[in-house]
Amino acid sequence: MAASLVRRDKKSTAAHLKADLNWTDNSSGVRQLQELLDSVLNPEKPAADTEALDWCKCLIAGGEGFEEFCKTVRSYDNATLCGLVWTANFVAYRCRTCGISPCMSLCAECFNNGDHTGHDFNMFRSQAGGACDCGDSNVMRETGFCNRHRLRTGENVPSVPRDLLLMSEMVLPRFIICIIQYLRDGYTEPDTSTERDLQKVLQQLEPQISFLEELTKMGGAMRTVLTKILTNQQIFKDLSVGQEENVYAKKNYEKYLSALKNSGLVSVEEKAQSGAAEPTRGAEAGALGLLGAEAPASPDESNKEEDQDGGQSVGQRKRVKLSSTAKDPSIMDSLKHKCFLEELLFWTIKYEFPQKMVTFLLNMLPDQDYKITFTKTFVQHYAFIMKTLMKSQESDTMSNRIVHISVQLFSNEELARHVTEECQLLDIMVTVLLYMMESCLIKSELQDEENSRHVVVNCSEPLLKNNTYWPLVSDFINILSHQSVAKKFLEDHSLLMLWMSFVSFFQGMNLNKRELSEHVEFESQTYYAAFAAELEACAQPMWGLLTHCKVKETQEYTKTVVRYCLETLQIWFDAIGFVDEPAPNQVTFHLPLHRYYAMFLSKAVKCQGLDLDSLLPHQEMLMKIMVHPLQIQASLSEIHSNMWVRNGLQIKGQAMTYVQSHFCNSMIDPDIFLLQVCASRLDPDYFISSVFERFKVVDLLTMASVHQNAVLDGEQERPMLEGALTFLVILSSLRIHLGMADDEILRAEMVSQLCMNDRTHSSLLDLIPENPNPKSGIVPGSCSFEEMLSAVADFKAPVFEPGGSMQQGMYTPKEEVWEKEFDPIMVVLRTVYRRDVQSAMDRYSAFLKQSGMHTTGNPWPPYKERTPLHPCYKGLDRLLHCKTLHIVIFTLLYKIWLDHSNMSEHVLCMVLYLIELGLDNQVQEDKEDEEPCIEEHCHDSWFPGTNLLSNLHHVINYVRVRVPETAPEVKREKDPPPSTSADASNFGQNSRRLTGNWRENVREAQVFSLVAERRRKFQEIINRSSTEASQVVRPKSSSTRWVPPGTPPQLVTEILEIRESMLSLLIKLHQKLSAKQNSLSATWLEDMETNSHAHGDGITAIERILTKAATRSRQSKRSIQEICGKVSPPVAPKKNSPTDKNTMDKDERRQRARERQQKLLAEFASRQKSFMETAMDVESPDAEAAMDLGASEVMESEVLYDCVICGQSGPSTEDRPTGLVVLLQASSVLGHRCKSDETKKLPTTDDEHIYPADTCGAAHDVRLALMQRFFKDSSCLQSVSIGWEGGVYVQTCGHTLHIDCHKSYMVSLRNDQVLQGFSVDKGEFTCPLCRQFANSVLPCRPGRSTEVVSWHMPTNKKTAVLVKEVEDLQEQLGLFPVSTTTESNLSKEMESVIKDIKNTTQRKYMDYGKNPGSPDNDFLFMYSVARTNLELELVHRGGNLCSGGASAAAKRSCLNQLFHVLAMHMRLYSIDSAYNPWTRLTQVAQRRDDCLDDERPEVPMLFRDCPSLLIIFVLTMPQPLRKE
């Protein structure tokens, strides 16, 4: 029967069958149809056969044409949603004003038909694909619907006639099972299959799936039919197993079962191993228990899947209790399918989400029943999706397709809540994420490497490197954006604990260890992965949760999170074996647990009115919490001080990323806030001493002019001290989390970005840190962004540039912003590149000059008043009022005043800033707090109390310091004054203080004794107390080698007489800065007008501080007047002519300069001596004698060069020479100079010449030709210069690099595929630092200070003696330069640069002799290069070598290095006496026999060219050239 039907005409058969089926008794019709379908839809036929598809179309249409049938069905479309699905690169719209969910999007048609005027919308190119949300009130507000979906035209559509879709209901189930059979059949196990096999199966099925897609587009009526079929469990049961007798279907079914087997998180075999107790264990299962591996699992069991290698299983992990809901074993079980939809999704995942299938599944979503079932199915398959994703080769494409689906499902709050309640969505997500990360854990090496029990993710694993986790995390962030779901998450404590253990996998990842000896060989780029992972997997879910903790009602949630953060932190500290000191030379930028804790604290105080103290742990825990964030701040300074150069550029990259605008509010801001909290609650002396210890500058804080620093080199001390002070200023003045309103924060961020540079609107939007969840695209208070921008900035309209290009419109800060709101501290915090700080300061000073506020000298960063602190953080001000800080301030003021080494203007600026902050933020002192201080009034303590205002005028008489015996202080004073014992101010005594916390319980007191101990140690180190100091001083050799107590240099205790107070030092610094003896008269306070203080330089800053001190304390005012009176005794007015005054100032300045120079020399000598003593423990008298060479040679140590490629600095050596980046160019410009001044005219007739005869080049040519007619050729070539035409000009940008670094740089340029504007093969390149064009490297001669020769002194020796000396030196010529005997790297490079110079110009400009190629030509060319460059230098400097001309500063000279290279080659020639003028000079009688070969005479001396002669003499001088 079926066979005859198949042969008949399709259309008439379909009509006939449809008629049969419409009868009441339709059994025969049904039977006929089934038989027909059995033969047509036989899965054993190849899928590519289109016959079956044609049959299906005809049967469904029931005899009409398929197109007409589609039209008819569409007319019954009752859908109220649009649901148009698109794939990647489709252009869609998003309107933030109408969106409820941040992921909402609209197709162009719905967007244009809706009313979005004045809304905040954007048009975007879809990355992963999406679907139109128009009509879905869960995702967007109804006001934004388009006309069609707002009017709900679908609701009043007539109901569908029964017979219209009758055939579809019969045919489609068979069609779908046929597709499923094909999918089952095509599937082969992963180990045997290749990508290609799966792709082939999909290609063959393309027409069938496209047909299903077409059906979905027919509208609501057809979708309802499809939904029924896809979700009906009975049809699936009947058709899925396959009929008994069909062997083919049976085989496919078995394939399907084997594919199902390992779809759960635990494969079936493992299930059997871990026993049947699995489901009942439920609540007690560990995180791994849930995942199927018992905690005491055998090693092979960790091999959960073929995609994990057993070696990855690390240590015993902590078992985490899971909520009882996790009893539901669906997360781990392998899947069981009950309907077509489930199996279709299963194959979609197995085949790695083919685009057509995804589109079909999504096109069905407007049907609500389908949507709910599909979402549940998707959740049920979640673990399976993750496993497939991890194995996938094309994880990027797959990720996009997963998100394409999940975004449609989870953006809908109603649906997300429903699935969370019914299917444990949250448990599934967290468990799956945890499982995923567990596949790539390694042992943490932070702190205690051997015994650490902490595990972290390995950032070099593809899972992290390729962001494979992204789709799952993005789903998690998406569902947390729904309040109902987030609340459920926050209420479920076991889930929270599980999440915290997930976050702790990232705590301390990507650890950096400082390279101390070699430059690291391979710069790993894992830090990209680490920063991305922390931002996406930790910070964004955190911001998501924080958005729901904004009101008082949610206090409990915050408390819970804070509690679990602290618990997890404690677990972490125990796991890494942390006690109190961080391990040296290690830093990790990733502390998500600290940041969770910080952000929830901030929200609790700011929005929920919780009391801070109720959320803080005990003091000891706070001390631990502050260590790692503080370590990061110190490391930032170390990185900028070049202490990590050997770790390569990537470490700088990390430091930049940490503060960069997309990361700063999730990284540096929480860290600084956490440190502020710790500072406000811990003992301030302890905190300050910890800061200076972490920044490694404690040794620097001594009154002595010489100190030893065990951990830092000399050049690192200054930047580290600046870093420590800047950090303290930021800490005490930043208010982002301490009381600023959101609008104020936005304003401050905007001002700081605009002050660095003018910005375009888009770049400003990008640079302002987004406060909540950055995925949302909702800018913080988006309404106020524009208002704020117009309040602080002016718009500069776009302009056309001459080339025709358009310059974008920029925003630039308003004048009043510069005047009142420019905050250098905020700028420092937000700059990624250090140059931006300088740029902001330059712009600021330009503004001041322009507005006439400050016209002389460079202004200092302005001081800005701060918003008041939130009452909870009042304790932060105690930081500015503690003795330790005051001692540091006093010491630094003293050192700056005395010009000690490593002090800078920046240090003074920050010290003054701290004083001013202290004066502006007074601490309200309780009477009780005063009591413990009574015993302090003995003289032994530095300061009587803790208040800055009263300490300012406290005079310190004597300080006891520990200095090396060689220090200048020792010589000064042998017998200490008798009063010392009473007055010697000594740090050690401070340990008795309990700073007012003596009322707290015993436990606290214990902690404080620990604090006091720490403080005492710190203070001993600064200015050592006489008893224990000898033990405290750390030996120079960074404590690796034991040094007996008596090793030199011996430290001795000296007593310095100081007799200064902070006020007196400030006044003396004022004089020093203004370079006037009596810069402040005794009455200046009265004359002062108060408003001129805001802007200016250091002088203004000091005046401002003194005025503030005087207005706030009468005692200070008296002291100031007294000091000013003492310093400048009143003089009778004397008429001084201005010239007198100038000469006086000049003399004074000269005197000062002389003193300073002497001091420097003495310091150098003593430093060198002490270094020599420590370096060589030699007792021989020779060593002593060598040391007495005197100070003059100390200055002539080797020149150090910085290599701009590897960043290291050092001398140029024979083996590893350094070179200058140079550009060699041939130039004939000198030859065109004319004697006559008349202006040149263009020739207009044949008689006129464009080249006049009186040019320099022409004159020299004539001269040489004339000489060659009468005199010996070789002699002629030594009597003139060439190079007027085609001379080689050598220029440099001034940057140096190691020659070997340069070679590897050139190799990398050669391999670089990018199109360059220069030819690398010819040796051309751009300077790696300033990008100037260059084509050679000029080696720098190693500078040695040993070759001191008597020649340099003016002498009155007899001529005969001098002649003898020259001859002796000639004898040694074989030895000098070294390169004639030994072929070193340096000499090779010198030879190659000479080759480059010769290749720069053409041959004709080098051969002027009669016989081409003779050495005479070379000799002439060589010294002419020197002449050419000297002449061109003259031109540059405006005709005078002594005065710097207009461009002298801009052009850096390389004559020094050039002359060395030329001299070396000239000396090679001068071994032959014909080329050595010195031998001629000293030979008394000239032998006649050397003129025989060429009868012509030599050129007489007076005919020769003087400059040329001089240059030959200089370059062949038998001893090295020196800069004298």
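That was protein one. Protein two is written in the same sequence-then-structure order:
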Amino acid sequence: MASSDEDMDGNRTLPGQVKSQSNRLEKNHGDTKPSSPERNPDDKSKSEKIHAHEKSDEDDEWDCAEETPMHGANDDDDSCWEMATKVGLVVCGILLFIVVFWSACLSRIIIHIMIWKLNPPYTNNNFTLNRLGGTLMQQLQRMRLDICDGFTPDDCTKGQVVRGGLPESWVCRNETAVTCLLWEEIPSVNVGWIWGLLIIMSVPYIYTMIVSLWRICFKKNKVDDFNLKMFFVSLTVELIHSTGLCILVFVVMPAFDPASASILPYFVCVIPILLSVKFQVKRDEKTKVKKKRKRHTKSKENGTKMIEVEEAPKPKIRRNDFRYQEVPFLGVIVFVAALIFLCVYVFFCSESNFVTTLVLLLISVIMVSVVWWENFVTSNLTQTSDGEKQKQSFLKNYVKSKREKVSALTYLIKIGWIFLVTLIIYVIQSKGSTLETARAFLYLDKEATVQTLSGTIRLESRSYITYGCMTSNPYFMALICFILTFVFFKAARYACRVVLQRRCFAPPIGLNLLLMPFVFVILMKYPLSFTTEGCNVLQPLWELDYTNSLERLWPLIVSGVLGLVSVAILTLYVWTTKGSKMDKVERLFMKPAYCGLFPDLSLLLSRRRIVDDSDYSTKKVEEDKPKEVYSPMVYFCATMWHETENEMTQLLKSIFRVDVDQCWKRNKQAWKQEQKRGYYDEEIYEFEVHVFFDDAFKPRKVNGKSKKGRFVNEFVKLLEHCVPETAKSIYGNYELAPVEKFATPYGMKYVWNLLTEDAKLIVHLKDKFRIRHRKRWSQVMYMYYLLSFELNKLKPKLQDSCNAQSKNLKEMIHNLAQNTFLLALDGDVDFKPEAVTLLLDRMKKNADVGAACGRIHPIGSGPMVWYQKFEYAVSHWLQKATEHVIGCVLCSPGCFSLFRGSAVLADNVMKTYTRQATEATHHIQYDQGEDRWLCTLMLKEGFRVEYCAASDALTFAPEGFFEFYKQRRRWAPSTMANILDLLLDWKYVKKNNDSISMLYIIYHIFLFVSSILTPGTIFLLILGAIITAFPTIEPWLALILNMTPVAILIISIFLAKEDTQLLLAGIISTIYSLVMMVVLIGLVKEGVESKFCSVTTVFFCFVAGVFVIAALIHPQEFTCIFHGLLYFLAVPSMSMLLILYSIGNMHNINWGTRENKSAAVQDTVIKKKNKLEGQTCSFGDWCRCMVCVREIHEPEQEKGTIQRPELVPNKGKPDGMKIEEKTAKDNAVAKVAEKTGDRRKRGDFKNCEDIPDEEEKFWTGLIKKYLKPIDIKSDEQQRIQEELLELRNKIFFFVFIVNTLFVTIVYVLTQVNSYQGTLEIPLPCNVAGGKQGKIEPISIAFTLTFGILLLIQFFGMIYHRVSTLTHIISSTRLGKQVQIKRPTFEGEREKAERITGEERGKDTTEGKLAETTKGGGRGWSKVRAGVLMSASLMSISGEKRNKPVPLTDLKNVIKEKTKPLDSVVEEQDDELLSKYSNIPVIIQSVRGLSNIKIRKKTDKQGTSTE
């Protein structure tokens, strides 16, 4: 009887399918394949009929047509966007290169020109150092001009230059009756040039100090404590650097000309070069690994997953590795040689002041180079003694700490020190009174005489600057220089963050250092060519003369070349140092500030040589010890209930695409590790898929009578059918292994093995009579199961591993939990593999990020979906982006969000999340928006929630008005409840969460208040539109007309059923849409007449402009802007009526969505069953029942069993709290069977295996403690219902009164103003008819309510968009990309089958069905449908039909395809591999540890235990 029951149950038609598909379901419903060698002989009798039926199906040649899964949105070919992204990457790279190069080049030119103005060239001495060794010659025809022939003495006295081709604005220094002298015997130098240089030097430290103060004020938890020892060390280093910088800039460099002075920055690397020798770079790891290879193989069993260490085959093409031991010594030799030649040049050109110049030069460059010491002492720190250990511990803490408090105070002192040292320098050089020099320096006196290395100058503070230029020119040039250096600073660091260091950081900086001397040679050769509007900031009276002897220049040329080579050798690490994408700048650069005078060199030397934190370890590290990394473990956790076939297929396609992507990358990584053992792909992660299916069972019936046992319902059967069919569509006719079924305490578990090694798809079928149902409790299930149970299961293995490696067990578990993630999914979500990778990037960037969400795109059809497309776009573009920038995102939606395991396991998060709702507010906050509540708990515990706009996911949105309103009825109250919870507890949240500041709290208070006043604001907007469109209507009448529909809806909320309320809301929404069209026409009319002399018009244009700009900077989502008109028309409905409806029905805590779908499906089944059983009274039904009363015996579920439990009605209304249905007879039988403890397997459980005892014990304990089905008594549910109604009344009354007062006040003010005009604010413009423009109270109310918020969100969007662009650029790679569409490897498989067929004398043409890609078929390509003959036509023509092949064959094909031909390393791979060492890497992961067996131990009796 049971077997016949199963057969009848298996022949049922699934929801959303045609009858012909049920046969295919049977093929995949069996436990094993007929030909499987692993088949248990004992199970043969159980499946003989199934196998016989499958065999008969295979013989049905007429059944030749095939059906593929439905087409999803992500199945579209997006190669156009991929190409656009790559083109954008190239364009961004080119622009970044140009910005970095030209900003560095122009800033250096300005700096050297300003330094040159401090000491103009001399002609009356032998000091040729500032004249390029004597090649810079005077131009006498420009210095001494005879101009008085034919002019009056007055004209001559004014010094007007009228000959020689010089600008007339050049005023003579000395003039006589017949001669104008442009040259002075004692050159004059304006103090403005000194102060301009001081500003350039100080501004970077002012900026860094402001940033440090900002972090101290708003990032208290992340700021390091003030350390006095660190402060003194930092202050000493910075003061030494400042002193040397002032001597170099104001004493030494002015003694050189710009061309030779541009070489001096090559020599500010003294300390880094010397330290690079002491803490030398490791020699090539590849040689050392070969010498100590046996040592690695012996330490294999250490409880971790380690890469094989056998010698790898040497690739044919390999890049040169510069990291050899001889490199630092070579750099020192080259540097010393360059310094010697520089000394020779100084000796040739400054015979009188040779010693002074040389001593000051050496002292200054040494003092300047001290500031970069910490970047060159962070390698090979070893412990030799207790004293050394203490010193190195301090050194490690000093280098790793951010030192915000120390930096703020240090840079404040440093800024004052720079000004003080500069003043002392000029006072010391004073030839006259030191007081006069100080007064001239401080703009308190007119002039003073100063003695420099090259001669005497006159320091002036109140004279003209130079030839034809104004007094403000030095400050203007300083401002331009600061802007350029700041742009360079940001652009260069940005290039490193987006992993373009080799293209847009090192090359432009190196090119700038190389070309700078040649640029000044050109400027000095043609000085007059750079005259602008009569102003020339060069030295136009001097010009290079190449005919003069160049014998003194050869030491300078050799010194420059060798100095540049030494800098290149020292900074080779910028070409080899790898960094992760989106790395923080603190991990990429050692110093938070840059040197304003040497911005290019300062960034080169502060770029961290090694980004890895292990570089700062004080422990003695073996040179060949493998590096340890943690591979993320991502659990895909989807919740399902009543999804359709299309929705299930959409989710499954996404999962299988991830499976193919990860399998491909793993095989690619394995091959690359053969070339470089230290390589690992950061985009690879372990994963496992878990689907939690609510309400998955129905009662077991035999001949219409309820029996013990349960059957899976139609939705589970639909999923069981979709899994293998969808897999074949993604894998390319490779099929999954048969499903494995297990009986569990909560119901049943289905397991499929996926393509990637050890990856599984597990479906947990929940029986609502065994375990608590609904989405929140499914989340509790996978939180405890995947985080608590799975990690605790690893403790014995972790303990064994820790003992072998001398590690801390607690620390290792914390690291595993921190790298374990839960990807929360809905049952209908659609995403691509890169979406998951982008979310992981956010998690890796900051360990404090507890959750990250992506960009959710609603899909579907109809006007409601169109509205939601624009609504979702605006919400993500503006609101989520702003929340991310100024603090944290408040809600990470459960349809597609990544949660960190350690954040979920934190105190007051997972434990609190299991709390059962006992109060009215709990039902609203806990169950109506569980994802928002989970994020609230994380925010309170100090974790960040971020938004990643580059990670896209698609989900089905409500397509009907009623369903949409019901969904928002849940969302709106839970949103307000969670925001209010944070605001009321703002002190604790602000103290505990570093990302939440007072500004963030104020923003959300403002947003909360504006949300409450939104209905009243929209009401006033409509009122003003009616008055504007219909001037004949009195204001009081317009108020009544606008109030009437709102009053009708409010009355219906308290008196009518929910469906009646929704019907009225739909009708009123339609009316208001017409009114909004009138509003739109009125706004256009007012804008045309007033010509923007109206606040309303300006604000409307501002809103439209924000939306258009937002769409333009989101080009892939630009089409959403076209739905903006529908969004505008729906503003009254969605911003006024929906809020009233949501608050008025907040006591109704039904889920609201998907219930109609399940009810419709079940009603259809019940009606069909009633007809067949003859339960109607018509004559036709009676005849039909007499003849066909036994036609079908379906174990159907009675009404109410497939739906979620309904709430008990309150006063005749169908709304109330959900409870378990205990009236159905079949459910009662099943429930009694569970309570009696009958362990015999019946129904669908009879073919299930048992889960391990440890897992069963866990589920039993979890259900007993947290997930036991809720059985609420009638009096308890009545109490809760009354509390919900009371809470609804209080909140509704509050919102109603506040908006009524707001509307009344604004309306009264408007009426008073219309009669008296005392409240108007006149505008300086006229409107139509010549009337003066004015601002009215309604305009002020609307503008202030939304304008300020929109402006804040606009700037937040711009900032976040830059961050998203950074993420996209850093994640995009040029060249061939892996596109997961459909594998084309079946061509290789079918080729082998064709060879086998030829051996048998047969001919197969299956190989024609697949296209192979160029270049040996590497990569993936989309199969072009319709080009080749379909499978059905081939079968009719007699050709062999496609036969599914096991998935294991595809693994072998992928493994072969990932290897390049002839083991030749491609250029792109070669560049990538060169960043990694050859020391093997240990990859720690949950999956790897779980697969390792515990070592066998022998006890005293001699028995071994595992």
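The longest strand covers residues 944-956. Keep this in mind for the problem set.
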